[in-house]
Amino acid sequence: MRVIAIDGPAASGKSSTGARVAQQLGWAHLDSGALYRALTLASLDSLGKGGTGKGEGWSVQRVLALADGLPVRLVLVGGAFRAEVAGVDVEEAIRSERVTRHVSALAAIPELRAWANAQQRQLVAEHPAGVVVDGRDIGTVVFPEAPLKVFLTATPDERARRRLTQQGQVLDTERVRRESQALAARDEADASRPVAPLQPAVDAVLLDSTHLTLDEQVARIVALAQERFPTVHRLTGA
Ligand code: CDP
Ligand code: CDP
Known about the structure:
Blueprint: E1 3-7, H1 14-25, E2 28-31, H2 32-47, H3 60-69, E3 72-77, E4 80-85, E5 88-89, H4 97-107, H5 110-125, E6 131-135, H6 138-142, E7 148-153, H7 156-166, H8 173-192, E8 205-208, H9 214-228
Parallel strand pairs: 1-6, 1-7, 2-6, 7-8
Antiparallel strand pairs: 3-4, 4-5
Bound molecules: cytidine-5'-diphosphate (2 copies).
One cytidine-5'-diphosphate (CDP) binds at residues 10-11, 15, 32-33, 36-37, 103-104, 107, 135-138, 186, 190.
Protein backbone atom coordinates (compact mmCIF):
# COMPACT_ATOMS: atom_id res chain seq x y z
CA MET A 1 0.00 0.00 0.00
CA ARG A 2 1.23 3.46 -0.88
CA VAL A 3 0.81 5.26 2.44
CA ILE A 4 3.32 7.27 4.45
CA ALA A 5 2.16 7.82 8.05
CA ILE A 6 3.42 10.90 9.87
CA ASP A 7 2.44 11.15 13.53
CA GLY A 8 3.56 13.41 16.33
CA PRO A 9 2.56 16.04 18.88
CA ALA A 10 0.92 19.37 18.07
CA ALA A 11 2.88 21.81 15.89
CA SER A 12 5.77 19.41 15.33
CA GLY A 13 5.53 20.13 11.60
CA LYS A 14 3.47 17.13 10.46
CA SER A 15 1.17 18.91 8.02
CA SER A 16 3.77 21.22 6.47
CA THR A 17 6.14 18.29 6.09
CA GLY A 18 3.43 15.95 4.82
CA ALA A 19 2.29 18.46 2.20
CA ARG A 20 5.81 18.95 0.86
CA VAL A 21 6.69 15.26 0.87
CA ALA A 22 3.48 14.51 -1.02
CA GLN A 23 4.21 17.27 -3.53
CA GLN A 24 7.72 15.94 -4.18
CA LEU A 25 6.46 12.39 -4.69
CA GLY A 26 3.37 13.35 -6.70
CA TRP A 27 1.13 11.90 -3.98
CA ALA A 28 -1.86 13.42 -2.19
CA HIS A 29 -1.68 14.82 1.36
CA LEU A 30 -4.32 14.07 4.00
CA ASP A 31 -4.23 15.95 7.32
CA SER A 32 -6.40 13.75 9.54
CA GLY A 33 -6.53 16.44 12.23
CA ALA A 34 -8.63 18.48 9.78
CA LEU A 35 -11.38 15.84 10.05
CA TYR A 36 -11.50 16.10 13.84
CA ARG A 37 -11.33 19.88 13.65
CA ALA A 38 -14.13 20.08 11.04
CA LEU A 39 -16.30 17.79 13.16
CA THR A 40 -15.64 20.02 16.17
CA LEU A 41 -16.47 23.18 14.21
CA ALA A 42 -19.71 21.68 12.92
CA SER A 43 -20.68 20.59 16.46
CA LEU A 44 -19.91 23.98 18.00
CA ASP A 45 -21.86 25.77 15.29
CA SER A 46 -24.83 23.43 15.14
CA LEU A 47 -25.07 22.03 18.67
CA GLY A 48 -23.65 24.90 20.70
CA LYS A 49 -21.17 24.59 23.51
CA GLY A 50 -22.96 21.62 25.11
CA GLY A 51 -19.78 19.67 25.79
CA THR A 52 -19.10 16.10 24.76
CA GLY A 53 -20.75 14.34 27.69
CA LYS A 54 -23.55 11.89 27.03
CA GLY A 55 -27.00 13.40 27.48
CA GLU A 56 -25.74 16.91 26.74
CA GLY A 57 -26.00 18.83 23.49
CA TRP A 58 -23.17 16.83 21.93
CA SER A 59 -24.37 13.28 22.25
CA VAL A 60 -22.35 10.98 20.04
CA GLN A 61 -25.43 10.21 17.95
CA ARG A 62 -26.08 13.88 17.25
CA VAL A 63 -22.46 14.51 16.23
CA LEU A 64 -22.48 11.46 13.94
CA ALA A 65 -25.80 12.58 12.43
CA LEU A 66 -24.19 15.96 11.67
CA ALA A 67 -21.09 14.30 10.20
CA ASP A 68 -23.17 12.29 7.75
CA GLY A 69 -25.96 14.81 7.20
CA LEU A 70 -24.15 18.12 6.58
CA PRO A 71 -21.84 16.34 5.59
CA VAL A 72 -18.41 16.84 7.16
CA ARG A 73 -15.80 15.55 4.72
CA LEU A 74 -12.43 15.97 3.06
CA VAL A 75 -12.25 16.87 -0.62
CA LEU A 76 -9.17 16.57 -2.84
CA VAL A 77 -8.19 19.95 -4.29
CA GLY A 78 -4.92 20.17 -6.22
CA GLY A 79 -3.14 17.34 -4.39
CA ALA A 80 -4.33 18.15 -0.87
CA PHE A 81 -7.46 17.07 0.96
CA ARG A 82 -9.36 20.09 2.31
CA ALA A 83 -12.06 20.09 4.98
CA GLU A 84 -15.61 20.91 3.94
CA VAL A 85 -18.77 21.32 6.02
CA ALA A 86 -22.07 21.38 4.14
CA GLY A 87 -20.19 22.03 0.90
CA VAL A 88 -18.26 25.02 2.29
CA ASP A 89 -14.45 25.01 2.54
CA VAL A 90 -13.56 25.41 6.24
CA GLU A 91 -9.76 25.04 6.12
CA GLU A 92 -9.30 28.45 7.74
CA ALA A 93 -12.19 28.30 10.22
CA ILE A 94 -11.04 24.96 11.69
CA ARG A 95 -7.72 26.49 12.84
CA SER A 96 -9.43 28.92 15.26
CA GLU A 97 -8.56 28.92 18.94
CA ARG A 98 -12.19 27.99 19.73
CA VAL A 99 -11.94 24.78 17.72
CA THR A 100 -8.45 24.02 19.07
CA ARG A 101 -9.76 24.24 22.65
CA HIS A 102 -12.53 21.66 22.08
CA VAL A 103 -11.07 19.25 19.54
CA SER A 104 -9.21 16.83 21.85
CA ALA A 105 -12.35 16.12 23.91
CA LEU A 106 -14.26 15.17 20.79
CA ALA A 107 -11.33 13.16 19.41
CA ALA A 108 -11.31 10.99 22.55
CA ILE A 109 -14.75 9.51 21.70
CA PRO A 110 -14.37 6.02 20.17
CA GLU A 111 -17.43 6.23 17.86
CA LEU A 112 -16.19 9.50 16.37
CA ARG A 113 -12.73 8.04 15.83
CA ALA A 114 -14.34 5.07 14.04
CA TRP A 115 -16.12 7.56 11.75
CA ALA A 116 -12.84 9.45 11.07
CA ASN A 117 -10.93 6.21 10.43
CA ALA A 118 -13.53 5.03 7.92
CA GLN A 119 -13.27 8.36 6.05
CA GLN A 120 -9.48 8.14 5.89
CA ARG A 121 -9.44 4.52 4.72
CA GLN A 122 -11.99 5.22 2.01
CA LEU A 123 -10.09 8.24 0.68
CA VAL A 124 -6.81 6.32 0.62
CA ALA A 125 -8.48 3.40 -1.18
CA GLU A 126 -9.70 5.89 -3.80
CA HIS A 127 -6.15 7.24 -4.36
CA PRO A 128 -3.88 4.30 -5.11
CA ALA A 129 -1.18 6.64 -6.50
CA GLY A 130 -0.18 7.31 -2.90
CA VAL A 131 -1.20 9.39 0.12
CA VAL A 132 0.86 10.98 2.89
CA VAL A 133 -1.40 10.92 5.97
CA ASP A 134 -0.56 12.85 9.13
CA GLY A 135 -2.11 12.74 12.59
CA ARG A 136 -1.73 11.04 15.96
CA ASP A 137 -2.67 7.39 15.34
CA ILE A 138 -1.98 6.88 11.64
CA GLY A 139 0.90 4.42 12.09
CA THR A 140 -0.63 2.71 15.14
CA VAL A 141 -4.35 2.40 14.25
CA VAL A 142 -5.51 3.81 10.93
CA PHE A 143 -2.79 2.38 8.65
CA PRO A 144 -0.69 0.03 10.78
CA GLU A 145 0.47 -1.68 7.58
CA ALA A 146 1.95 1.54 6.08
CA PRO A 147 5.45 0.72 4.77
CA LEU A 148 6.87 4.00 6.11
CA LYS A 149 5.92 5.53 9.46
CA VAL A 150 7.55 8.64 10.87
CA PHE A 151 7.08 10.04 14.37
CA LEU A 152 7.99 13.71 14.21
CA THR A 153 8.89 15.57 17.39
CA ALA A 154 10.43 18.85 18.56
CA THR A 155 10.75 20.43 22.01
CA PRO A 156 7.59 22.13 23.35
CA ASP A 157 9.24 25.58 23.22
CA GLU A 158 10.36 25.12 19.63
CA ARG A 159 6.87 23.92 18.68
CA ALA A 160 5.32 26.92 20.44
CA ARG A 161 7.62 29.27 18.51
CA ARG A 162 6.69 27.57 15.25
CA ARG A 163 2.95 27.78 15.92
CA LEU A 164 3.13 31.48 16.92
CA THR A 165 5.27 32.31 13.88
CA GLN A 166 2.80 30.45 11.68
CA GLN A 167 0.02 32.65 13.13
CA GLY A 168 2.04 35.82 12.53
CA GLN A 169 2.37 36.53 16.24
CA VAL A 170 5.26 38.22 18.06
CA LEU A 171 7.58 35.82 19.90
CA ASP A 172 7.88 37.29 23.38
CA THR A 173 8.90 35.04 26.28
CA GLU A 174 5.50 35.11 27.99
CA ARG A 175 3.57 34.26 24.84
CA VAL A 176 5.93 31.36 24.02
CA ARG A 177 5.50 30.07 27.59
CA ARG A 178 1.69 30.20 27.37
CA GLU A 179 1.56 28.56 23.94
CA SER A 180 4.02 25.89 25.04
CA GLN A 181 1.75 25.09 28.01
CA ALA A 182 -1.35 24.94 25.81
CA LEU A 183 0.37 22.55 23.38
CA ALA A 184 1.62 20.38 26.26
CA ALA A 185 -1.91 20.18 27.72
CA ARG A 186 -3.34 19.06 24.36
CA ASP A 187 -0.51 16.51 23.89
CA GLU A 188 -1.23 15.17 27.37
CA ALA A 189 -4.95 14.80 26.56
CA ASP A 190 -4.11 13.08 23.25
CA ALA A 191 -1.47 10.79 24.78
CA SER A 192 -3.49 9.72 27.82
CA ARG A 193 -6.82 8.81 26.19
CA PRO A 194 -7.66 5.10 26.25
CA VAL A 195 -8.46 4.86 22.53
CA ALA A 196 -5.74 5.46 19.92
CA PRO A 197 -3.45 7.53 22.14
CA LEU A 198 -0.69 9.64 20.65
CA GLN A 199 2.37 7.36 20.60
CA PRO A 200 4.96 6.17 18.09
CA ALA A 201 4.30 2.87 16.33
CA VAL A 202 6.92 0.28 17.30
CA ASP A 203 8.31 0.36 13.76
CA ALA A 204 8.19 4.18 13.32
CA VAL A 205 11.28 6.19 12.42
CA LEU A 206 11.69 8.81 15.16
CA LEU A 207 12.65 12.20 13.77
CA ASP A 208 13.48 15.02 16.19
CA SER A 209 13.14 18.18 14.11
CA THR A 210 14.13 20.66 16.84
CA HIS A 211 17.34 21.53 15.03
CA LEU A 212 16.23 20.78 11.48
CA THR A 213 14.83 23.15 8.88
CA LEU A 214 11.59 22.23 7.15
CA ASP A 215 13.55 21.46 3.96
CA GLU A 216 15.89 19.14 5.87
CA GLN A 217 13.10 17.12 7.47
CA VAL A 218 11.27 16.86 4.14
CA ALA A 219 14.46 15.65 2.42
CA ARG A 220 14.96 12.95 5.07
CA ILE A 221 11.44 11.59 4.67
CA VAL A 222 11.61 11.70 0.86
CA ALA A 223 14.89 9.73 1.04
CA LEU A 224 13.23 7.16 3.32
CA ALA A 225 10.27 6.96 0.92
CA GLN A 226 12.61 6.20 -1.99
CA GLU A 227 14.09 3.33 0.04
CA ARG A 228 10.74 1.89 1.16
CA PHE A 229 8.88 2.42 -2.14
CA PRO A 230 11.47 1.49 -4.79
CA THR A 231 9.26 2.51 -7.72
CA VAL A 232 8.61 5.99 -6.33
CA HIS A 233 10.55 8.90 -7.81
CA ARG A 234 11.05 12.42 -6.61
CA LEU A 235 9.21 14.77 -8.99
CA THR A 236 10.21 18.26 -7.88
CA GLY A 237 13.13 20.01 -6.19
CA ALA A 238 13.15 20.93 -2.49
O1 CDP B 1 -2.14 20.94 13.82
P1 CDP B 1 -2.19 20.51 15.24
O2 CDP B 1 -1.00 19.66 15.57
O3 CDP B 1 -2.42 21.61 16.19
O4 CDP B 1 -3.44 19.56 15.47
P2 CDP B 1 -4.23 18.70 14.40
O5 CDP B 1 -3.32 17.73 13.72
O6 CDP B 1 -5.02 19.61 13.58
O7 CDP B 1 -5.16 17.83 15.35
C1 CDP B 1 -6.12 18.44 16.19
C2 CDP B 1 -6.55 17.43 17.23
O8 CDP B 1 -7.25 16.37 16.59
C3 CDP B 1 -5.45 16.77 18.03
O9 CDP B 1 -5.03 17.52 19.17
C4 CDP B 1 -6.11 15.45 18.44
O10 CDP B 1 -6.94 15.61 19.57
C5 CDP B 1 -7.01 15.15 17.24
N1 CDP B 1 -6.43 14.17 16.31
C6 CDP B 1 -6.51 12.84 16.67
O11 CDP B 1 -6.98 12.51 17.75
N2 CDP B 1 -6.07 11.88 15.80
C7 CDP B 1 -5.56 12.21 14.62
N3 CDP B 1 -5.17 11.25 13.79
C8 CDP B 1 -5.44 13.57 14.25
C9 CDP B 1 -5.88 14.53 15.14
O1 CDP C 1 0.84 19.70 11.60
P1 CDP C 1 1.54 20.16 12.83
O2 CDP C 1 0.64 20.78 13.84
O3 CDP C 1 2.41 19.10 13.43
O4 CDP C 1 2.56 21.30 12.42
P2 CDP C 1 2.53 22.30 11.16
O5 CDP C 1 1.30 23.10 11.23
O6 CDP C 1 2.84 21.57 9.91
O7 CDP C 1 3.85 23.16 11.44
C1 CDP C 1 3.93 24.23 12.30
C2 CDP C 1 4.88 25.26 11.71
O8 CDP C 1 6.24 24.85 11.92
C3 CDP C 1 4.75 25.50 10.20
O9 CDP C 1 4.63 26.89 9.97
C4 CDP C 1 6.08 24.98 9.64
O10 CDP C 1 6.50 25.70 8.51
C5 CDP C 1 7.01 25.23 10.80
N1 CDP C 1 8.30 24.50 10.83
C6 CDP C 1 8.39 23.14 10.66
O11 CDP C 1 7.36 22.49 10.44
N2 CDP C 1 9.60 22.49 10.72
C7 CDP C 1 10.71 23.16 10.94
N3 CDP C 1 11.86 22.50 11.00
C8 CDP C 1 10.66 24.53 11.13
C9 CDP C 1 9.43 25.18 11.07
